[in-house]
Design a protein that fits this description.
By secondary structure, this protein is of the alpha+beta class. The chain has two domains: 93 residues, no CATH class; 84 residues, Sandwich (Immunoglobulin-like), CATH 2.60.40. Helices cover 27% and strands 25% of the residues. The protein has five helices and ten strands. The strands form two sheets. The chain has a five-stranded mixed sheet, with no helix packed on it. Strands 3-2-6-7-10 form a five-stranded antiparallel sheet, with no helix packed on it. The protein starts with a helix and ends in a 6-residue tail after the last strand.
Length: 199
Amino acid sequence: MRCSLGLLALVACQASPLADSAPTPGPECAALIAAGERARGCDPAIDALVAELQARPQELRCRGAARQLLAPPTPARGRVVSVYERPPAPGDAPLDADERAALLRLPLPGTLVLAPDLAPGPGVPATTATLDGAPLTVDADGRLRGALAPGEHALTVRHANGETHGCVTLRACEAVVLTAHGASLAPHPALRSGPCGPP
């Protein structure tokens, strides 16, 4: 998702804090803190981020984190990329009013959790799935997980020779947990069979 909240935490927390930073957040950090407070319900790590920014605000670091959140989505998988290509560096100029407003409008992600009830083993292949064409990641407990902007998303579940296509509706800061038996999906209010679009 283009505005990953994990990226917010990663970018804002990676830099080491300066001992002499101002105790009162300036406009850059205030905008990032406001975005973080809005997103607290989505990711528990956001609480620690907001607390750190309030305790040790650094305008340049907040500015860079905000610009990375507002950056266009990364190119689609499969694009040929030169080894010399580097992402553009965030600008050093202060955030303008449009950028600060855009931070407050960032869509908060919804989460899909797919729980296969067939554990992979001898003769039993693993269940795989994609959400809008991107593969779901596998948790340590075998569940598959992905996060995207709220709205309808195409879900494809594969197991052995079976494949199921559906449309799942995600809501901001909420998790939709679906159970899969092979390639079949248990009914769920957020799921309908077939492609996304008008029913």
